[in-house]
Amino acid sequence: METIRDVMIRLGAEEFTGRAFECQYFGRMLEAGREGTAQILNVHGTGGIGKTTLLTRFSRLADNVGAGFVRMDMQDYMGSPDLFMQDLASRLDSDGQRPMGTVTAERIIEHLHNSTAGKRIVLALDQYEEAGSIDSWLRETFFPLLRSDLLIVIAGRYPLGGPWKLSSLWRRLIVNLPLTELQYEEARTYLRRQGITDESLIDRLWLISSGHPLSLSLLAVNTGSGQFRSSAKRETHAELLQYWLEEVPDETLRSLVYAASVPRSFDLEMLQRMMEAELPREVFERLIKLSFVGSSARGWQLHDLVRDAARQSFRERQPDTFALYLERLIAVLNERIRSKMEGGSSAAADIYELISHTGHPILRAHFRYNRSSANYWEPVTEQTLPEMEKYIERRKAAAKTARIVCSDPDSDEWFRYELTGQESLLRLTGWHPAELTAFGLDSFRLLRGPDGDVLGLAAMLSVRADTLPYLLRNPLSAPCFRLLTEAHDPQENETCKFIFAVDVMDPESRELRSDSVNLIMEHVLSGTLLIACPPALPFYRDSHISMGFEPLLGIECPYVYNGGVQAAAYRLDTRGNKLHAFLEKTASLRTENGSMKEHPHSARRKAEGSLISRLTPRELEVAERIASGSTNKEIAGSLFISEAAVKKHLNAMLQKTGLKNRTQIAAELLNSRTDL
């Protein structure tokens, strides 16, 4: 008859989701048997990422192949080798072995070897961040005496560092296995097993949790009966925050965690200027060593969920202080951007940070989890040209329906798009690689992962004397270039580009979408006129508008993609002084009531501009859809707002501009675009 423990293990196994790579790797290490090389599998990740759950799965996998599995919880031993050995002895004795007498390391190891002769054994140490001084004893005394085919698994919040890294011998034995959040399909499977089957609710819980296992579990509980309550997110964030802050015992460090939740990336100087206080370097060092703080090319970052939870708590409990810190942060960023641009150095990192707090909600949603990606864009060469061709083949063969979900962290506004497999491939049509390679390989870039795999492709043709005839006859680009006479000047050279495609292998991947945004922003910040004709689908439309692209109206005979999807034309010009105008528009601050607070210079410029320039970014979105012929209902659906809100925006636009109806708004918008 099953025991309660047996039932719990079985239910846990049925509930277990994801971690396919980790389980396969562990399985291969078990299969290596006595011929295997001594290894230490280092499982690490922030609190609640599922380390203990994975160890339970490892235990079951070991049991399936007849291997022994001993798990030790390091928080039970208070750094004492004696307590560790006593517990290990009791676990070995509980398997029916005879008493061992006086417990010493040598006796423990001898008994371990004798009792496990002929079979694989796994020693798993959980919560290793609690090891304390026992760490050096294990490394210097206990582990070296173990049999070489014994598999050691060390799980903790931090990767093994310090003396482990300093020793080249230990480094050769350690296999790093960092745990990250569950992917969308894995999270979806988990939630369905919890009885949550509504797809829109699954999307919402995925957004809130970002695939973090503990967060998903708490949300599933707090949601209850498959119904999402508005308080579920708040309850989950509060519970998670308290769980993480157990690492942070003193108030000084906690206040620093809350301050660090305001920016996406931070450094010591930024925090000091936000808080207007000198921070001792040792306190800052303690902050960046917390398990939920990671380094990046732009400084340090709180784990996404920790930041969301701390930021929400900070904004609710101390709204005035939060607003003051945000105001000071924006001032620091603007000062850094201005100084770097005047000095001729790149201000991209600070502009990215600024964009994450300001600008368009969809762009903020794209930048929400935009960490410093390990992927990189590289130019195509003669040697890598075959890889580009293979990427296109693989991309077409692997095309599937893509569900793209993102949300704005400031407003909690969320966006959901769906592309069929055919629609996700449209950007690879309308042009042919051989046609563009005739003008040189500088039109192409490949997106590579850290292992060298090709994950994306970009095709952008510069406007030059030799490329202009092609752009004027290509059915995708020709309508734009007949309208944009300024782009016909070959003297513009590299400062004008037509974007044929920016494509990634998996459109659902947040990281790959961020890589695409980063590539576009790289060109924007270098001062370029970008022209694009993506498919007229909501995902492409909203993505371009969020990045600052403006619709090109009045184009005759627009291109029609395969399947009858029409092309839409956009442009974004940041050449010369227009880059400053773009940054001013992007740097609009969102106020608490959801309206936009403009940069002073931008506000003055708008007062001197056209009628359309008086509109807020949201009103401009409504105006653009009016100009494209959308009804109020269609506008409401595309912007995720009510029809009443659309009417409110329309009335506000008429009052601001003095125009009389929708037709005049569309005409004014068209005039303002063609005058640019």
Care to describe what's here?
This protein has four domains: 4-178, Rossmann fold; 184-244, no CATH class; 248-357; 370-575, Gcn5-related N-acetyltransferase (GNAT) (Aminopeptidase, 3-Layer(aba) Sandwich), CATH 3.40.630.30. The protein contains 32 helices and 18 strands. The chain has 676 residues and is α/β, with parallel strands linked by helices. The longest helix has 24 residues, at 319-342. A seven-stranded mixed beta sheet has the order 8-11-12-13-14-16-15, with helices on both faces. The protein has a five-stranded parallel beta sheet with strand order 2-3-4-1-5, with helices on both faces. The protein has a two-stranded antiparallel sheet with strand order 6-7. It is globular.
Intertermini distance? 80 Å
Alpha-carbon Rg, integer: 29 Å
CATH homologous superfamily classification of the largest domain: Gcn5-related N-acetyltransferase (GNAT)
Main beta sheet strand tally, sense and closure: 7 strands, mixed
Largest beta sheet: what is the strand line-up? 8-11-12-13-14-16-15
Count every helix, treating DSSP H or I runs of 4 or more residues as helices.
32
Overall structural class, as computed from helix and strand content, comes to alpha/beta
Strand content: 5-15%
